[in-house]
Amino acid sequence: MRTHFFYTIVTALFLSGCGVNPKNYDNGLDFALASKNKKISRVMDQLDHHQIQILYTRVKKNEKGPVHFDSHQFQVDSSKYFYPASSVKIIAAALALEALEERALSHETVYQVGGEKQQQSFSKDIQEIFAISSNETYNRLFDFLGTDHINKQLTNKGIASTRISHRLSTSDAANPKTRDLKINNPAGGWSQQYGFMNQAAYPLELSAIKKGKGYIENGILVTQAFDFSLKNHFPIQSQQALLKRLVFPALFEPHETFELGEEKRNFLLKSMSSVPKEMGYHTAEYYDSYGKFFMYGDTKKHIPDHIKIYNKVGYAYGTLTDNAFIKDSKNNISFMLTATILVNKNGIFNDNIYEYESIGIPFLAQLGREIYTYEKYLKKIETH
Asked: Which of left, alpha, beta for 204 (phi over 0: left; psi -120 to 50: alpha)?
């Protein structure tokens, strides 16, 4: 998924602010974006190039009252398009578990797709979505659900402005017909789910839907903007809205939540927060931050056990996105952070020349650290 090149971190990992005092800011997002750290400032100095959108939400708790949210945003606009890439996989994971719950099937259920000889399990596939962001796994769940069901369920749950239209990194990505599946029900043996047609994607009418000055197609440079109008759409507000429903379902009306049951919900949250080594992957290639950009994305260091990051990242077409609930059990800190950034200096798409490691991931990592620093500051003054 990623090119393994990292800049040396010459100061302590959580040295933030560089002279910016948190007491001078009303919220953590303003504090973070005012940072003098180059990883932040070079992006803020060229906002037109990076199309960043950020939504930060404090999760406030007290012993007697319910959880409530305090949100702050920067350039968030659901009508301004960015390519969500693999961040959409959280949708497939949640809805697949919900579909299994409705059929009274375990998340350990085994199934087989199309003409493939190998049997899969839903649990392993969902773990791979979060551990290594497998496209093949997502595509199988896509065929299990279908776009009509996916989009209808998102609308019914109040997750607005989202449109799922295609698979990822496969030649038949936009085929509206799903593949045949066989599902093994321990109580009744194998059952057949035949492929079915879904509505064909319609062109999105959004600002910034055409990007750049050219793109590579079949090895040839096409000198016109790249058109994303038939692609998936998963805006920042919708990403965080979905995450809230998974982490804090009690705060929503029943019809707005995912009907998972306690076992499946706990399995999903564990899959979201686990690092690859906890799922058996070798740490040299799949280090802790492999799929976690905020706070740790620019380092291969171990993520402390007291910090859990429940998230899903996206990474394609020069666009980086992370949607995360970050919980520090040691310092009693909880917050949500959802952000996207475009890093495509030459304006050419599909050439695989993007500034992921030099600009994008360092920005998201430092953004997470700055917000975390502000949260620690608030916790300190709240307890004194």
From this structure: beta
pLDDT tens, the chain, 384 aa long: 454 434 333 333 444 445 589 999 999 999 999 999 999 999 999 999 999 999 999 999 877 778 999 999 999 999 999 999 999 999 999 999 999 999 999 999 999 998 788 999 999 999 999 999 999 999 999 999 999 999 999 999 999 999 999 999 999 999 999 999 999 998 889 999 999 999 999 999 999 999 999 999 999 999 999 999 999 999 999 999 999 999 999 999 999 999 999 999 999 999 999 999 999 999 889 999 999 999 999 999 999 999 999 999 999 999 999 999 999 999 999 999 999 999 999 999 999 999 999 999 999 999 999 999 999 999 999 887
Alpha carbon distance 337, 59 (integer Å): 11
Give the chain's domains with CATH numbers: 22-87+203-382 (3.40.710)
- Within 13 Å, how many C-alpha atoms sit on residue 262's CB side? 0
Is residue 203 a contact partner of residue 230, using CB atoms and an 8 Å limit?
A: yes
Of the candidates 8, 61, 52, the one whose C-alpha atom is nearest the C-alpha of residue 375 is 61
Angle at 378 between CA 375 and CA 380, to 5 degrees: 110
